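can u do me a favor
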């Protein structure tokens, strides 16, 4: 081979090895450009976007909404990425709409809401006022911890659909995600109580929420006096014994995140076991974006859930750093699918980035729609894979 051929071959290899990164960088840039329309609209309307229905914007529900931190979190990610003050101004404007919810002790989703927005704001800007809000939210969240059960209660059982089902102390698999707020609170304050509660919740959930095959129940209801399990059931899945896709995604992300903070090997093994369940499941599509439930009866005609795919992609990018197994290629597959015409809206009129998520099929809510949290985790995954940081 002459020198020219060798140089040409080496250049070809370099281009090939760079290709996926460039691809995701372009996707990130395109996402930022597209989300500017949503930024203008949300600032103009002084409202917090959640989804769309029949072409109309759906704002976060009043007086409280578990998704209300995702759009400001998205704005913070884009502020960090671009340095454009408009993203910071939008994040700050939207956060004002729900900041008072930091004191709510009636719901477990404070981690989702405040870590992904105010927590991110503090980590990016170092501004102490964001830290104070975040710690207030962490203090509200830990009031829901019951030492007898070893868990933070997810939903209150008052005169609602939960009480009609006879539940006493429901804990949902999603709740693992709220632990990130507590681990961060421990990191900031050094106060052991935040970490102890997070670890206790993670351990109880590992013991009680999972089946032999590594799949997770959606809801475990406990006896709050004895800590015994009353029942293992579902709210958003197809059936009590099915594997609701977003629940599996929360579990995967949750234990990967627990390993990040604790370096406890059992969390790493749990994340790998959950990955094994997903990846070996005969109903897991080759393109990586799961059906809304692994046991949906109408597979292959069942709806996909882009949000579950985005969460899994982000989690696998992180897990790949810790594990001896290869997960980055799994994340790449999902990102390629989510970025394809089938899932990725390229129209500013759609406002959001991703189509085809499902909120809750059993409740008839948000069927095959865009969702603010699908976009949040898609963007997070693109940032993680292009910046090689978390
Ligand atoms: N945490 C609620 C959901 O995943 O739908």
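np, heres the sequence
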């Amino acid at each position: 081979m002459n020198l020219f051929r060798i140089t040409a071959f080496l250049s070809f290899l370099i281009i090939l090895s760079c290709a996926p990164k460039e691809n995701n960088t372009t996707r990130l840039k395109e996402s930022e450009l597209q989300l500017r329309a949503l930024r203008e609209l949300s600032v103009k309307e002084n409202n917090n976007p959640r989804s769309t229905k029949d072409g109309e914007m759906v704002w976060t529900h009043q007086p409280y909404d578990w998704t209300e931190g995702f759009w400001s979190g998205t704005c913070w990610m884009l502020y960090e990425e671009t340095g454009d003050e408009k993203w910071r101004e939008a994040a700050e404007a939207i956060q004002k709409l729900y900041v008072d919810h930091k004191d709510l002790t009636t719901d477990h989703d404070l981690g989702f809401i405040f870590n992904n927005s105010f927590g991110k704001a503090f980590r990016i800007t170092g501004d102490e006022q964001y830290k104070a809000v975040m710690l207030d939210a962490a203090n509200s969240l830990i009031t829901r911890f019951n030492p007898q059960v070893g868990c933070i209660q997810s939903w209150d059982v008052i005169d609602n659909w939960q009480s009609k089902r006879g539940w006493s102390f429901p804990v949902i698999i999603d709740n693992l995600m709220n632990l990130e707020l507590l681990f961060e609170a421990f990191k900031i304050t050094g106060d052991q109580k935040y970490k102890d509660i997070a670890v206790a919740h993670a351990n109880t959930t590992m013991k009680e929420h999972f089946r032999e095959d590594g799949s997770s129940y959606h809801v475990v209801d406990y006896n709050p006096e004895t800590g015994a399990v009353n029942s293992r059931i579902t709210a958003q899945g197809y059936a009590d014994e099915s594997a609701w896709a977003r629940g599996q995604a929360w579990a995967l992300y949750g234990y990967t995140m627990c390993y990040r903070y604790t370096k406890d090997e059992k969390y790493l093994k749990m994340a790998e076991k959950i990955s094994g369940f997903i990846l070996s499941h005969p109903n897991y599509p080759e393109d990586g974006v799961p059906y809304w439930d692994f046991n949906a009866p109408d597979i292959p005609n069942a709806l996909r859930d882009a949000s579950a795919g985005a969460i899994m992609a982000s989690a696998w990018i992180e897990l790949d750093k810790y594990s001896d197994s290869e997960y980055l290629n799994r994340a790449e597959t999902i990102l390629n699918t989510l970025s394809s015409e089938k899932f990725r809206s390229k129209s500013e009129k759609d406002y959001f980035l991703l189509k085809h998520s499902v909120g809750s099929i059993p409740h008839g809510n948000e069927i095959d729609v865009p969702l603010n949290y699908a976009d949040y985790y898609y963007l997070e995954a693109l940032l993680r894979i292009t910046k090689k940081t978390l």
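The chain has one domain: 31-387. hope that helps!!
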